[in-house]
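Backbones bend. Shown next:

***
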Amino acid sequence: IKPDGSCGMEVCTPVCKGLYSLKNIEKVVDAFSKNRKVYADNRCSLHIHVDVSDLSLEQVTTILTWWINCEMVFLDSVPETRKRNRYCQCISQTEIFDLSGFNFIPTETLIYYLGSSKYYSVNSYHLYGKRRSTIEFRIMDAKACVNSEIISNWIKLILHFVEMAILKGM
């Protein structure tokens, strides 16, 4: 647990892998939900960093490309406060891309664009900055911070999305 300028306090897990780690996350979230002193308001959100160290840059680009194409569907699954939030900017509503002609962007260019800010709904900020080999998904709202079922299902959904994007390819 550490201070965070946007919401007050931030809870960061160590690197997690597998069902055992997911169950531990659920236990922590359940403990939060039972403690009256712990609450999550509209400033809070869940960020999932997916390790891409074992993927090629082309595979990372494939994941990012699929996300951009599916972004509005994912955003329709979260409350309006998350859609209109400076900490979770909708990529298709930025000036980065003219999505009407969106079909191919070179690998390095896409990683650069989505690494320029950590406030996109998905970003390569840490990957591009060589801090961590992760891409970050930022769209889930405060409910996930205090509901173990939501957080568990959201993590599973994001990981499944990543796997399917890689499998499907460009």
About this structure: The chain has a mean pLDDT of 86.
